[in-house]
Amino acid sequence: MFNCEMLALARESRGYTQSNLARVTGFPQSRISRYENGTLRPTHEAVSDLARALRYPERFFEQTDPRFGLGNSFLFHRKRQAMPVAEVRRLEAEINIFRMRINRLMRGLDFEHDNEFVTYEVDEDGTPEEIAQMVRAGWKLPAGPVRNLTAAIESAGGIVVLTRFHPKVDGISAWVTPTPPLFFLNDRAPADRTRWTLAHEAGHVIMHRQARPDIEPEADRFASELLMPAADIRDDLSNLTLPKAAALKLEWRVSIQALVRRARDVGAIPSEKYKSLCVQISKAGIRRNEPNPIAPEAPQNLRAILGTHRIEHGYGNSELSEIALAFPDEFDELFACAQPGLRIAK
Questions:
Q1: How does 105-128 read in b/e, with b if 16+ C-beta sit within 10 Å?
Q2: pLDDT for 51-102, tens place per residue?
Q3: Which domain holds residue 92?
């Protein structure tokens, strides 16, 4: 049962155009086009050639999982600048395929977690700040800084994946049932930016199951309150200076720039002081290279999933790669950080 959608997905994940794939396989481009639009079904030999060229097992092209695009109510991405269309298509394909693989790896596992992701509607249930406060309460987070945001996200069943993205992309979130919320973070970003991105993406999956015109500023407001509750941080931000912000960075585990912006937003400093601090940040070169780097957070849930398969079920990497419909070398590369770890109930 050849699925033409999977051919297009596989091609885009490798960064190929139809012309590129035609050259690699020796097929006419018109035939590739007809395969992808479903007007021509490839022979078994043709599927083998396509699988070899795209470096996917033949069974990959039989999957029937739905595909979702970036920026709709299921998938969100935080990018620093506009990206070329071809790169967006490739990124979208890679995330969809990774989601499919996680879904297959989780089949038959009872994924236990202490807390839950609960969705809210902005305005109907409250402001982004009020929703962040409800999330903190629901996840039983104590007052003050969130010491380990990754652990909090994963305690509610989310899966955080550190991966190598296009340098213009900080992170992507996806929540397509039955797969739990997935958060893909750029492993080249500093830890303070990664935490902000993770909080921002959590805001998306919690508040934005339906598209809205102001989802980006709403996710930023959610992230600010989740990481720096106004009632807890306001006194710390009074009489703020850059040296003081650098010290607070280590306590609150957010960037100096985020602290300065938060000080203005909660009324701890006047707008004139905020503008002055922004000028100082620019002159000091802090925007690109902040002092006092914080330690990164290590995700655990993906380790737990693979560890359960390895330890409880006795699977090796070749068997796991078969479940994920990947070749062993690519599976090892994709899941290099997910070594046996925490256990999940069978």
A1: bbeebebeeebebeebebeeeeeb
A2: 999 999 999 999 998 888 765 545 666 666 677 888 888 888 998 999 899 9
A3: 66-227
Is position 340 within any domain? no
Q: Is the pTM of this model over 0.70?
A: yes
What value, to the nearest 5°, has the Cα angle with vertex 289 and ends 151 and 254? 30
CA 245 to chain centre: 28
Q: Are residues 159 and 49 in the same domain?
A: no
At 270-288, the pLDDT tens digits run: 999 999 999 999 999 888 8
Counting the structural domains of the chain, the total is 4
**If DSSP states are collapsed to H, E and C, what string results for the chain?**
CCCHHHHHHHHHHCCCCHHHHHHHHCCCHHHHHHHHHCCCCCCHHHHHHHHHHHCCCHHHHHCCCCCCCCCCCCEEEEECCCCCHHHHHHHHHHHHHHHHHHHHHHCCCCCCCCCCCCCCCECCCECHHHHHHHHHHHCCCCCCCCCCHHHHHHHCCCEEEEECCCCCEEEEEECCCCCCCEEEEECCCCHHHHHHHHHHHHHHHHHCCCCCCCHHHHHHHHHHHHHCCHHHHCHHHCCCCHHHHHHHHHHHCCCHHHHHHHHHHCCCCCHHHHHHHHHHHHHHCCCCCCCCCCCCCCCCHHHHHHHHHHHCCCCCHHHHHHHCCCCHHHHHHHCCCCCCCCCCCC
Q: Hey, what amino acid is at 252?
A: W
Token code pair at residue 41: 């079904």
Residue 104: per-residue pLDDT: 92
Indicate whether 290 and 307 sit together in one domain: no
